[in-house]
Here is the input.
Amino acid sequence: MFGLGMQELLIILVIALLFFGGKKLPEIASGMGKAVREFKRATTEPERLDMTPKEKADASVRDEAKEDGSHG
Here is the structure.
């Protein structure tokens, strides 16, 4: 894992514990886990089209106009 051994990870954990404190560390880890999950989900999900109701109405009007043969 990034070329870090057990000793390095232990030192980083101790420094983080001293810097943030015991109560704040689980909250930080939880937030980082949520961020990683959201990032993975966003990179694997197909992009959704964001159409507001007004755009949907405009699109349906254009579709109906095409079916009628008029240009609008």
Notes: The CA atoms of residues 19 and 37 lie 25 Å apart. The chain has three helices and no strands. The chain has a mean pLDDT of 77.
